[in-house]
Amino acid sequence: MYAAIIKLDIQHFYFILQIMETVNLKIKAMLVEKGITFSELGRSLDKPVTGQMVSDVARGLRKSPRIRLAIARRLGVSVRDLFPDYKPARKKSTAPPDSDSN
Asked: Is residue 49 within 8 Å of residue 6, measured between CB atoms?
């Protein structure tokens, strides 16, 4: 019984890896078509990152909403088209905390 579960988990793992690599290749092909490299995209951000970081996000190894958004914007597509699990980063509140002095 456990062997069947382990085999299923390994198959599931490889399936997910294949999907991640397909998404990475799609993103890379779209960037190449526009003449953009992962490195150029990383350097163009407000807070620059390496091309490897951009590649890791494209491959699903890291989840950075900021980099995912930058990739999508440069490609002119929706973030969710590239990353279905995308969740926008929450903005930090700058309002002071409520204070009840009762």
From this structure: no
